[in-house]
Specification:
Blueprint: H1 7-17, H2 20-35, E1 38-39, H3 47-51, E2 59-63, H4 88-101, H5 112-115, E3 119-123, E4 128-129, H6 141-155, E5 160-164, H7 165-169, E6 181-185, H8 190-193, H9 203-213
Parallel strand pairs: 2-3, 2-5, 5-6
Antiparallel strand pairs: 1-4
Length: 221
């Protein structure tokens, strides 16, 4: 696996790439991509870091693992490529933005536009085998992405962490809540959203209010 990651992250995470677990993980990922169809494409595995440089991180959104359908995953959690129909969770995210910020529902499900404004769209597991959800979990990715979350918490201030659903909420233990803002809610998936655990969380307006209070440019969601 070629670790194609922006230098702003490289210098902070270089030790991680040399650890035994990461070498094992890299070998596993290389084998999977050689013998199976996997997502996202190899060049996009570290897209979250290349689209949102460390110095620019204002917000962290944590997903579980990439979409496993053809043409969907592009290395950013909840995001899909241009022209791909929006998955249910993304639809509910956009519906909440519509209601919360009185914005029009967007045509494109590609969230690069968020990443470029300082939103790190981080899946806990960065790869997946086609049509097999969770197939690359517990292979070492979670150790790496937990380190990323802790590194952001340790080295930055006033970052907003949006933790949606039980899995993401567990990451709060890695975050220093004395210097960062954590917002939690149910997951935007239909199962959770339709039970009333997602809609009305107002996370997008709350995030922008917090950023403005700290002197940062709000996000154009």
């Amino acid at each position: 696996m070629n670790v194609n990651i922006h230098e702003s992250w490289q210098k902070l995470l270089i030790d991680e790439f040399n650890k035994p677990y990461f070498e094992t993980l890299a070998a596993f990922v290389k084998s999977e991509y050689t013998h199976h169809k996997c997502y996202p494409p190899g060049k996009q595995i570290f897209s979250a870091f290349n689209q949102c440089h460390f110095d620019n991180v204002k917000i962290v959104i944590i997903g579980q693992d990439p979409y496993h359908g053809a043409g969907q995953a592009n290395g950013l959690c909840f995001s899909v490529n241009e022209g791909i129909s929006h998955p249910p969770s993304l639809i509910n995210i956009f519906k909440e933005i519509e209601k919360d910020l009185d914005k029009q529902y967007p045509k494109s499900g590609n969230l690069e536009r968020w990443a470029k404004q300082g939103v790190l769209l981080l899946n806990a597991t960065l790869t997946v085998r086609a049509h097999e959800a969770g197939s690359h979990q517990k292979k070492g990715w979670e150790i790496f992405t937990d380190t990323v979350i802790k590194t952001i918490s340790d080295h930055k201030e006033h970052v907003v962490f949006l933790l949606w659903g039980g899995f993401a909420k567990q990451k709060s233990k890695l975050i220093n809540s004395n210097k960062h803002q954590i917002f939690t809610s149910g997951h935007p998936s239909p199962l959770s959203a339709n039970r009333g655990y997602w809609f009305g969380n107002n996370h997008f307006s709350k995030t922008n209010l917090y950023l403005a209070e700290k002197g940062y440019e709000p996000i154009n969601w």
